[in-house]
Design brief:
17 strands; 4-stranded mixed sheet; Immunoglobulin-like; Thioredoxin_domain; Thioredoxin_ResA/DsbE_sf; 480 residues; Glutaredoxin; alpha+beta; cytochrome c-type biogenesis
Length: 480
């Protein structure tokens, strides 16, 4: 018997877009476009029939939640969803029974909840068209004009949503509004971080004017409301706090790097309850992803986080990265299809380099690693392991080939390095999800001779000092 609260999703899609299976992602407390599976509460897989039909049924939820429907080819090599046809982070309600039909390059919806999906589909298409017409260069040319354009985009989004308000439940309307306000404003503050600064120093008087304009505005969503917990709205609140911290730091430190500003104080004093706890966890998560997590950040957060769910996340994830914690086993293949697991390296210190083709930072690290290997040449108790998350085996092999052909990504290689890849799983495996939390690459990991964590944040050999620091860290691990 089907519960009246179950969510049922059926559809028919052109098989040339989909392949043989469909994936339904039930999102959790957070949503990252660059890593949509990272915080998933559940993933369901359904076969696609000969006529393109598929079906999903989701339990008996007691409140609205977000889902994505994707197909294997929708994910790029870094694990990000790229296909504009997919259903990305759509809100669903208990009892929804939605049929999806594809015609050419468009989707159509019917059944209970069709208005909810149709509204989000129109908003998704609208924002995609806005992004296509946008230019990042416009910010540096005229930041005030650029912000006016973003404001106009947001007004258009809210106006479009307002037309569907009578077709939606009050709660769904408020959550979707928070989703799209958060998405638009997160984009604004993210561009201010990376385009409005030059080596972490704010660029130009107009940049300052835009920042002051935004700082003096009243929020469109109350920080004390239920909808402020929307994954995209929380991401906006976090991005804004980081940007504000960068400006404050730059004013006091003559442009020194303020990206790793300690945000504990402003989160503690500026927010309460669930929103505060969610922000604190996300701050720790992003710091870990950027190799900037400091022990006192964790202690500070745990001193005030009350929500059991977020306390458990902080405690459990910190345990996974603790020095001496056994590393999760893996089963990955080398260039000759030989399988390797953690036990194959027992008795050796392992420097693991995680990367993907097309990542410029990964190339910079790979360029310095041969010098690190050379400094430790002749030692039999160390292994240098390169692990690519490329889903396409041919692309990976081309990247690590000694004799590459055509236009491709070139990885710096050495005869002694063991080259592995994740057997086509990309980022969708337990090992990568655990040790590369936000798909931040390149990532280095030092594993000790007993197969335990030694250093999850070793120096990166971008330059000579980085090489020397990494060599010293490896020698320390070898002499432990």
């Amino acid at each position: 018997m089907v519960s009246p609260d179950s969510v049922i999703l059926t559809g028919t899609i052109n098989k040339k877009f989909a392949g043989d299976s469909a994936l339904l992602i039930v999102h959790g407390q957070f949503y990252l476009q660059t890593a949509p599976l990272q915080f998933a509460q559940n993933t369901l897989k359904a076969a696609i029939g000969s006529d393109g039909e598929f079906a999903f049924k989701i339990g008996s939820p007691n409140s609205p939640f977000h889902i994505s429907v994707a197909f294997p080819d929708d994910f790029d090599k870094s694990g990000e969803l790229k296909n504009p046809l997919h259903i990305a982070n759509y809100l669903v309600e208990p009892g929804n029974n939605i049929q999806i039909r594809q015609k050419n390059d468009s989707l159509f919806f019917s059944g209970t909840g069709a208005a909810l999906f149709d509204t989000q589909y129109r908003l998704q298409r609208l924002t995609q068209n806005q992004i296509k017409g946008d230019t990042l260069f416009g910010y540096n040319e005229n930041p005030q004009r650029w912000l006016q354009i973003q404001d106009a985009h947001l007004d258009e989004i809210i106006g479009t949503l307002e037309k569907s308000k009578v077709l939606l439940s009050p709660l769904s309307y408020r959550i979707i509004k928070a989703d799209y306000v958060g998405d638009n404003r997160q984009w604004v503050f993210e561009i201010m971080q990376f385009t409005g600064f030059n080596h972490r120093t704010p660029t130009g008087k107009n940049n300052k004017i835009v920042f002051e304009d935004l700082r003096n505005r009243t929020d469109l969503i109350s920080k004390d409301s239920l909808e402020a917990l929307s994954p995209k709205y929380v991401y906006f609140l976090y991005t804004r706090l980081v940007t504000q911290g960068m400006y404050a730091w730059a004013e006091q430190h003559d442009g020194a790097n303020g990206l790793d500003v300690n945000l504990f104080g402003v989160m503690k004093n500026g927010y309460d309850g669930l929103v505060r706890d969610k922000l604190l966890y996300f701050w720790l998560y992003k710091r870990r992803a950027n190799n900037e997590l400091r022990p006192f950040y964790i202690d500070s957060a745990l001193s005030i986080v009350k929500t059991p769910y977020f306390r458990d996340l902080i405690i459990n994830e910190n345990k996974a990265f603790e020095k001496g914690k056994p590393v999760i086993d893996f089963d990955f293949s080398d260039k000759k299809d030989k399988s390797w697991n953690l036990n194959d390296f027992k008795g050796k210190v392992v420097l693991l380099d995680l990367w993907f083709s097309g990542c410029s930072g990964c190339v910079a690290v790979a360029k310095g690693l041969p010098n690190v290997e050379h400094a430790l040449k002749g030692r039999s108790d160390i292994a240098f392991v390169s692990l690519s998350i490329d889903k396409n085996r041919s692309q990976w092999l081309q990247s690590v080939s000694k004799n590459p052909t055509g236009q491709h990504y070139t990885h710096y290689t050495t005869p002694s390095t063991i080259y592995l890849y994740t057997n086509g799983s990309g980022t969708n495996n337990k090992f990568i999800k655990t040790y590369v939390p936000a798909n931040g690459y390149p990532q280095l990991l030092i594993i000790d001779k007993d197969g335990a964590i030694y250093n999850t944040n070793p120096s990166k050999p971008w330059d000579r000092p980085g090489e020397e620091n990494l060599i010293a860290e490896l020698r320390e691990a070898l002499n432990k």
